[in-house]
Amino acid sequence: MLRIASRGSELALWQANHVASLLRPTFDRDVEVVVISTAGDRNRDVPIAQIGGRGVFTKEVQAAVLDGRADLAVHSAKDLPSSPELQPPGLVLACVPERADARDALVGSTLDALGPGATVATGSVRRRAQLADRRPDLTFTELRGNMDTRVSKVPPGGAVVVAYAALQRLGWLSLIAEVLSTTVVLPQVGQGALAIECRAGDDATLAALAAIEHEPSRRCVDAERSWLATLGGGCDLPAGAHCTPDGRLRAVLASFDGRIVLRDELDGYDGALLATRMLDSGGSHLLAENGVVR
Fold first, then answer.
1. Can you list the domains of the chain with their CATH numbers?
2. What is the dihedral sign for C-alpha 104, 109, 111, 115?
3. Mind telling me the catalytic residues?
């Protein structure tokens, strides 16, 4: 039996079962999903940044693989910390299957249709800062919970922001008012992609996962993660990056209020180079203002 550790939300279970469906044709063992509760799921009313930001949706799932309750873990790549020092010893990022659309989407209203001072609900400081840069008149409120909870909390006359891929995977495309261009809101690092971890040295599982690796997606996710790791932040920062399969890497780092927005891009997959360039051109000062000690 090949056991897949997953969070218990509807979206997480879709992702785990999707990976199971990819593995079954190439693997000679049965595949089952093992549901794991995480800190991020247990504290749905608390902003992610306040309960630790990085790793709140992954640590317990990773522990299940390390202690043998499961053989691999399926994460949303955006939830997986990018810094090598936060990677649990004994685990490897073994596989990134083909990535879905990385963009964000609005439910409830298009951006242009939102009236002056309209409320946008989002738990992401990245989304908030970039939308505030585009529409400084908007008002923002926190949003947490599973996808069904989020899309049910559209403020009167306002909108909520969620990942397009999540709506697509759940079959909820009819709820979308607008898919936001990456020129308006750059996605979170790894958004739309799945990241699969297993134990280092588990050759049978590594071989099975190698068969479902999508190299263009892996190359882009690695570039984005390298950018964030070099920057020294995580999902609790107003920062985003997106790499296209043709090798265009774009990134944004902002102040929490969106008044300062630093953007840069390069041709290629060198996330560390792009991050270093942004740090040298004002990013270090911006990170200090955001409370990040490098």
1. 2-99+192-213 (3.40.190.10), 104-179 (3.40.190.10), 228-289 (3.30.160.40)
2. negative
3. 79
